[in-house]
Fold these 4 entries.
Entry 1:
Amino acid sequence: MSEAPARPLRALGDVPVSHLRHIGEKRTAALASMGIDNVFDLITHYPRLHVDRTRRAELSELSVGESAAVLGEVTKVAARRTRNARALVELSVSDDGGSFRVVFFNQAWRERQLPVGTQALFFGTVGEYQGRRQMTNPIVDVIVGPSGESRDPSRVGRMVSIYPASGKAGLTSWELGGFIEESLRRAGPLLDPLDEDTRARFSLIDRTAAYFQYHLPRERDDVAPAKRRLIFDEFLRLQTLIALRRRYLATHAQGITHDADLTDLEVAPGALTSTDDALVRRFLAGHPFALTGAQRRVLGEIFTDLAATLPMNRLLQGDVGSGKTLVSLVALLAVIDHARQGVLMAPTEVLAEQHAAALRRDVADLTVHDPRALGGCRPVRVALLSGKTRTKERQEILAGLNEGAVDVVVGTHALLSDDVRFASLGLIVIDEQHRFGVEQRATLRDQGRVRSREGRDPDLLVMTATPIPRTAAMVAFGDLDLSVIDELPNGRLAIRTSWAQSDDEVAACWRHVRDEVAAGNRAFVICPLVEGSARVEATSAVDERTRLALGELRGLAVGLLHGQMKSDEKEAVMASFRAGELDVLVATVVVEVGVDVPEATVIVIEDAWRFGLAQLHQLRGRVGRRDAQSYCYLLGDAPSEEARTRLQALVATNDGFDLAETDLALRGEGTLLGARQKGRSDLRLANLRRDEALLRDAQTLAQEIVQADGGALEVLSDELRLFVDDDEASYLFKS
Ligand code: ADP
Ligand code: MG
């Protein structure tokens, strides 16, 4: 018998679901609403779990408070309204061990979804009501609808795959399973980029077997090896993409070899220097405090990159308050010392303005060599370019950049505007990189060469205080080299965080704010996040400020900062808060990132549950920025278990890396990468913490495959087209 030729995965992406049996217009639309358009989407719609029918938990065996998945058949449905007019749907469900109750609040549509005779899997916490076991608002996967459509006995085996079936789309897990089974059978053998030796080396099963065993396991032991292979493939594609990006950069770059000298970093405050010394030396000698060990170490890594021929492409990660700004400043000084220019890009105007002011202050006494200047020297010039810079000033700055008379330009994404040109751009620093999209980072890097008359690729340093675990970094920022600042400046005390819930605790919080102000310190009050409307958010901030100024904080100088204010208003308010004319700043999240007012020792975050964990950690980082004890108060309760976990995690630790792990566990990996260009995320089964070893194996193999540039790379490049947009594909994958 001759074997059918193996089918490449990408070919499945070209087959619309409507080509399958039993899929007409209505089901095509229902599948589309779940993000499933083609056969590839279908076979990567993986089961939420596999239920072993012979070993399934029965409700009667579970104790109250336990969470469980229980399979049962609906025997009774009743819908009514509660006294306060909430929709209530009540089911009786029987499983082999007896019957239990399921109730849904505010989900009237469940009555239609779950008529008598439906078999479904209910996930939830087991409770008890009037002596009977009950689940409230469980997650439901309908397995077989009431008409028993295609209750094909051959498919009711020992193991049942339970698919995340979107109830609202009206598809059952059973139907999805049927479509997937048909897809796999009709696809036949799938092309495998890994030969038998490679599979043996990493203990992987064959790809076709993996898809079959994961969707249609015959026994429990089929599942784990199948999953392992599918996860490996997800990582392998991702790491191959990263390796290809690196290869492209390495072969196409025209880097600059900067004259960065590592010994300059040894200079301590107060050291003697002369005007002939390197700018970095003169700066460090005159700076009020010494670099921390971690700052010096990462600067060593940065200087090594600067001095190399390939352009730097580095991510600097350091917790809030670890002193990333100083690191970037020293790197910028090394570059501008040799007649090149630097860019510092920040995500908000408030932050850009703060950076510009700090930089100007720090370089006030420094000069650079400039043959055009009288005496061959002139002061270092730092310009600020934002969306609000007035036309005339903007023209001057643009001219200065074009001639090389401006050394460093600080700004927001206004810097990306077309008319910004440089004489000789040497280094781009992006602060708070997580606020910028991956595309913006790529644009900046690519535009650097085009915008610079010198025509070379500038070095790139991106900084983030949103710490992500190392494995996550390997995935999200795998094309960047990583430097980590793992030490805070000396003398920092851990911020004391508490969650004030009772009226007494809240009153104590405001008393504490008054005490801190009385002791000469300052406070932030963060107003609730209002989804979707900056204007409503601003109004509520205005109201809150008035309320506090007349109430709890009466007699204190209370300022206001929100996103709807004009730039110069924002600047003026920040300036008076910095100067201490204001005691308290009531603000929206505009202060989230980077704002540095070391005198602030207390921050109150209202309705804290509305903020994500990373954002809360960032907000808290506005205090604790010098050697005084600082405090963070979280107000409001938590409407969900998840929100409670988040707030408790924040109370429990100050460590951004721990919080990042918690965050990853709470939100899953999908959110980490955001939507990929083609709207498809390739990490469906992978779990970065659980599968770290596989990720490392995949990275090793991907590097070998790209290096070898043979058949495996051809297969992988082809399937990567499922995830990468055509533009990028055209230059990454040589045909
Ligand atoms: P982040 O890493 O969050 O951007 P910053 O760069 O804003 O942190 O630094 C936080 C604070 O720590 C600033 O007030 C800064 O002046 C101070 N700082 C930075 N480096 C040092 C150091 N080596 N010793 C003492 N204080 C430092
Ligand atoms: Mg910062």
Entry 2:
Amino acid sequence: MKIIVATHNAHKLSEMAAILPRGIELVADDPGAEETSDTFEGNALIKARAAAALHPGEWVMADDSGLEVDALGGAPGVRSARYAGEPVSTARNNAKLLSALEGVKNRTARFRCCIAIVSPDGMEHIAEGRCEGSIAAEPSGAEGFGYDPLFVPDGCDKTFAELGPEEKNAISHRGRALAEARRFFE
Ligand code: IMP
């Protein structure tokens, strides 16, 4: 079975490949659709529908994810990738987040991931996962991507960037959304 995945993010693709059932071939094709929704679910559907239009009769999957920080009213949220503006820069995003939280005691946050699946006959399904945690005072670790060096999942004393991919996948928002997607495909 083949699934077209509407992403250009190699980290996301390898996290998906590690969790979905063996025998599923993931083919990346990002149609570059503009993410105009203010919800993760809406943006995942925009991307999945755009890829489905290019690949009629195929299974298509797209995810939208991001970080919600409670003290910032849920920001960066759907703007996580471009929090510090264009061109997209992980270093500037993380620096902006740390400065927005300077002196702030409540550092609770969560990663959220919505996966939209479009079946060959056009049926749509959404899988969602969350991971609760908090924002560290300074970055640690070199694994993963994005805000990983700043995010400490609840019940853990390391950031996502200090965990190996298996440890991260077991508890991450994307791991949980993919586990739900896996149950859907099975
Ligand atoms: P998306 O590609 O539109 O889903 O943008 C998601 C953005 O949220 C990414 O560019 C990262 O900044 C952030 N993000 C989502 N998932 C993760 C994760 O697992 N680790 C770190 N950052 C993430």
Entry 3:
Amino acid sequence: MAGRNDAGAGAVPPRHIAIIMDGNGRWATKRNLPRTAGHKVGAETFRKIAYYCKDIGIRYLTVYAFSTENWKRSVEEVNVIMRLLERYLYELMELMARDHFRIRFFGDLTGLPPSLEKLARRTYEVSGALPQDYCLVNLCINYGGRDEILRAARRYAADCAKGTQTPENLDDALFSSYLDSAGIPDPELIIRPSGELRLSNFLLWQCAYSEFYFTDTLWPDFTTDEIDRAIAAYAQRNRRFGGVKESK
Ligand code: IPE
Ligand code: IPE
Ligand code: MG
């Protein structure tokens, strides 16, 4: 699998960074604002960080925007998040070609409000016509790592039933090709702001050998300096992938 046998991180910057954009609600509550105010500022943070990652040469940026579990929240909060996603997708659609981004989605789009689903599919189509070397932003919406694996397993089982695959064929690379992240190398670095030390169902398959960077900063306060710090921390890690390597 891509990246699995690379030498240690050293000075090589990550190709793929993934971020759990967490802490919007607490940011707002601390300011006596409704939680939705945090989502609005958090969406702006996403814009700033995406441009920064592109500018420093990150090829793939994956962001967790809405999980399969986030539907448990109030209808009001969910509606605000869905409207924000729609607004930012419109904007991205307009700017992708000019600013050299491509967009892809991880998650089950069929569970989204129809207008957002349509827009997401259209954005994906437009992205398909853009040059492959543009920075690829993967938006995780209605995404859960377990759900992604289950959807992949179902499709594989269906192909076996049709006779186009056999159970014996299945290996790491083939299974990866059924995931939402098909064709994209695993993230070398996963960042979680907001002080929580868990994955919350993010990229469960792809994180096998990712390096983790946790910070207490809440997502709306997150800055480009934090990205630099995360990359600097990553550069110090000794990645062994199960092998043996002299420590630095
Ligand atoms: C992340 O911020 C955004 C989503 C999960 C949609 P939260 O809304 O989880 O913020 P906290 O964790 O409650 O502070
Ligand atoms: C993870 O954050 C999901 C996103 C950031 C989109 P949550 O706030 O939903 O995770 P928990 O509930 O703290 O585990
Ligand atoms: Mg949270």
Entry 4:
Amino acid sequence: MKALVDCAPLSTQAVIFCSFIIGGLTMHPMLNIAVRAARVAGNVITRGFENRSEIETQVKGPNDYVTRIDKEAEQAIISKIKQSYPTHSFVGEEGGIVAGDEDFKWIIDPLDGTTNFIQGIPHFAVSIALMIKGRLDQAVVFDPIRGELFTASRGAGAQLNGFRVRTSARKDLNGSVLATALPFKHKDRFSDYMTSFNNIFMQCGDIRRGGSAALDLAYVAAGRFDGYWEKGIKPWDIAAGELLVREAGGIVSDFVGGHDTMKKGEIVAGNPKVVRELVKQLKVTE
Ligand code: IPD
Ligand code: CA
Ligand code: CA
């Protein structure tokens, strides 16, 4: 992908007129900055992955870890975006809360899939979303190992490495390949989880547990997974992925078909038909 021209701090009007061409598609200037930040973080992460013996790991909670690389990547993202948008506000998973203009809020998971990273499993991503006035507006999920860059701008579709992607055309769960996550931080929920898992598994083709919510959602957007569900997630796990799925023609909902994904920390994603079928099963244990 060609390097793109930098765009200094921009007014909303200027943003409308200032866009960049990438892979035949125009790229929103704020998305351009998010992509640059994701690539900088990607370099921090791949370097860290090559020297994993030097990683310092801390325990944040039950089965929840953070490394020096998560923190370095988050700082790199925030400082890169701040160069262009010094007045914006930031919420990063690793404590990177920066007060500022609440109308422009960046939601960052610098390394989604930390357990994979620690274990040497090359499946993790950088996730960056921008909310404007409470609405998701720009999204980047970057897999630095495969060099896969998933991007979306509100109203302009979703792309993988500059090429348009869409959710799958699956009409029901029959034959579908889904993704999910076990309730590894809340094992008291396991029995309810297994009830719905059992019902869904009996209807679908197969189920994956990849270990990165951001990539699960990006793969739904790209039609690689037909659907995905998880409970116990945080806004930074799903903010970018939600916009990717919507811009790829899919929908996201909470477990009862409502819009409170971030507030409730639960998400179902896929094309509308798949989500409807998943919600039917998930509702039972709600
Ligand atoms: C986790 C991953 C995992 C999901 C967890 C997340 P982290 O994020 O996305 O797939 O099941 O709910 O917390 O801790 O690796 O950034
Ligand atoms: Ca995460
Ligand atoms: Ca993380």
